[in-house]
Amino acid sequence: MGVIIEFVIVPLGELSLSKYIAHVVKLLEGKRVKYQLTPMGTIIEVPTLREGLKIVEEAHEAMFALGAKRVSTTIRIDDRRDKDRKMEDKVKSVFEKVRGDKD
User: Fold this and answer.
1) I need a labelling partner for 79 at 20 to 30 A (CA). Which of 47, 51, 53, 98 fits?
2) What is the pTM of this model?
3) pLDDT, mean of each 10-residue run, the chain (103 residues)
4) Which of 67, 76, 65 is nearest to 13 (CA)?
5) 45: how many CB neighbours lie within 10 A of its CB?
6) How many domains does the chain have?
């Protein structure tokens, strides 16, 4: 089973966040974590909640290493244990219903 975590990290007081987000993406790529960058956040797919929270913590702390004085992080967790689901499965399920393929 896997866990899907969406997180948003905002170094407060900054107008441009791209350098911070680029650092997070490099962190994820270094850990070989499956991720999806969205315009408003980042989604990761990890084997365990513990692993995911550790990654989010590392990304949060990295903001301070980059010079941020205050950081706000929001986390949403989808931890489904009855069925193995991937990020793509969740999106596919919605679009099947939009097209009327499945109920």
Assistant:
1) 98
2) 0.87
3) 93 92 96 95 96 98 96 96 86 89 61
4) 67
5) 18
6) 1
